[in-house]
Amino acid sequence: MFKIVSAAIAVSLTGLPALANAPDYSPQDGEVLAFDVYRGDTEFGTHEIAFQREGDELLVDVDIALRAGFGPVTVFRYEHESSERWRSGTLVAFSSQTLKDGETYTVQADLENDALVVQGETEEGGDVTNSFAPSILPSSHWHGYPDGLERILNTEFGTPMEVTVEYLGEERIAADGTTIMAHHYRLEGTLTVDLWYDANGRWAGCAFEARGQSIRYERRSAA
Q1: What is the residue extent of each domain of the chain?
Q2: Pfam families annotated for this entry (predicted)?
Q3: CB of 59 within 8 A of CB of 11?
Q4: What is the pLDDT of residues 80-126, one digit of tens each?
Q5: I need a labelling partner for 58 at 20 to 30 A (CA). Which of 13, 36, 41, 83 fits?
């Protein structure tokens, strides 16, 4: 029913492309970014990202759960779980499992000989293998996307996604139970997604249109 771009680094973010108009974001051990997701004005589900450090690496776990229905009857369900492992600003391993439109897709990626080798599936269900430069960014959004970016890793299927990134300036959005000033970016790929990042470079909001429906993310307060 809805097509979702799914939706994380080492002790230093050196080597990871930074947002052009917002500061580098360095997640803390144990930090969680949590969003309430709305379809129009109706609660649609949640999207959470948890960060954990292991030595010089950072592990990022993404958990998305979306549901639409009438009372107890579910008419649409989307679930996505993924894990990213970053070392010195490089994505060295990735795995995901996605339940979408009643089908399950899995992706597994590892860094091999200076290339990220990704075993995934097409949306039609066929197996596919792709190799990416170690600098590839996954479509998990928390890290932001630099100006001039042309391709990212689709985390649902493990396939390349051609994109353009545009910075649209600063504006006030709802987040953390109040309103905040945030940097607004537009990512155009298989879906056009508006993304906002706060003054610290943390992902703060998201909005897109899917099959005539307006989807909106609102970040919960960490307190």
Answers
A1: 32-219
A2: DUF6134
A3: no
A4: 999 999 998 899 999 999 998 889 999 999 999 999 999 999 888 79
A5: 36
